[in-house]
Design goal:
Layout lengths: L11 H6 L38 E3 L6 E3 L2 H6 L10 H11 L2 H25 L8 H5 L20 H6 L14 H19 L2 H10 L1 H13 L6 H4 L5 H18 L17 E5 L4 E2 H8 L3 H7 L7 E2 L6 E5 H12 L8 E5 L7 H7 L4 H8 L5 E3 L4 E5 L13 H6 L4 E3 L14 H26 L1
Antiparallel strand pairs: 1-2, 3-6, 4-5, 7-9, 8-10
Keywords: Signal
Organism: Zemynaea arenosa
GO biological process, one term: peptidoglycan metabolic process
Amino acid sequence: MQDKTRITPVLAGLAVAVAAAVAPVFAHAVEPSSTTSSPTYQPAPVAKSSALDSIVVKQAKGDEYKETDLWARIRSGYAIPDIDNQLVANHVNWYATRPDYIARTGQRASRYLYHVVTELEKRGMPTELALLPVIESAFNPQANSSANAAGMWQFVPGTGKDFNLAQNLFTDERRGVLESTDAALTYLQKLYNMFGDWQLALAAYNWGEGNVQKAIKRNQALGKPTDFESLSALMPAETRNYVPKLQAVKNIIGNPAQYNVTLPPIQNEAYFTTIDKTSDMDVEVAAKLAELSVDEFKALNPQFTRPVITGGEKTKILLPQANAEKFYANLASWGHALSTWTTHKIAGAKETIVALASKFHTTPEVIREANNIPAKTRLKAGSTILVPKMAASAASDNDIAEHIVENAVLALEPDRGDSKRVVRTRMTNAQKFRAKTASAVETIKSRIQRKKRGS
């Protein structure tokens, strides 16, 4: 709950600056191009000071004031130099004329932004970097790119491994809120230390540090400047538009009323808390214990890619604070198995999905869905899959072994059916003679029959 608020003369300037405090930003849609032909925005009047009451709040101790709107907190930490060119104007126009896009992404962002901003401030980094997932994924942790990048911060597999993001059959930490945010900020810090310039660091995040280094050396050899805008002509279109897109979002968040953008405020408080999980647990069970829908649970815990959450004490689950309390209370009285899944390793071609379904008293559809096995494919020998626990072991709390979690693989091949293969063997001379004799006899019989029919 908020304490009673008041505006002082010292804060009057701040109040006007944050009058249009905003909340959740943008939802997933097609990215703007540099030549968008969208309808242009119409500037709106600046909000009146009567709407400023919720911007600052007096704290219980002392005379310090704290912003209650998270977007005001982000604006107060802007530190990357601005750019102002036609690309920025095009992207501002694209975002400002798509309120549905803003609303959808805002709903996603409201879960994660407090954590991202807090981590940026801990590291002393510019807070507008918290807006980068708008550009990367529209704050969708389930987002995938054509280059196999995944998650809110869009890590490709190789870069994810470089920053210790686990990627196995059960977990993809490129999607995890805590893990991917830590990796992204660490990577951005590394790039800034390399180039000494946040705009070049951002370009390298998108294009790769090696490419940016080559572009710098090329301009240096020609005696040309090496700032982002001077290098942009050497960059691919995506990178050339990357920093202007972030600048466009930054401009809108900085003064949404100027661009006729209306966004509800998002409270400057944590959305989720972290709890420990000490044994395997079905995703559906975890959601039920927390009294959340499965979709909402997955929105906070997108790194779990199978219906069971494996791992021991190192595995964390994110839940809204109130739901965390419900989780613990319901867990204490839970009288059923926490996990209904175990693993099975495919020994050979005879273990078809249909046969496995019969063996484990389920359906082929359940096995395919649990293991993300597409239709018209079958399992190769050596694959490890999830199967339901048998009745005798359903009540067992035996977890999936750690070495299985870390090393399991799923290999698939096209299912061409069970047509019999023609087996060809080499015949002996005697067999060849008998085959020729039989063929000659059949030929003579056929001729005799034709003569009889013709007579």
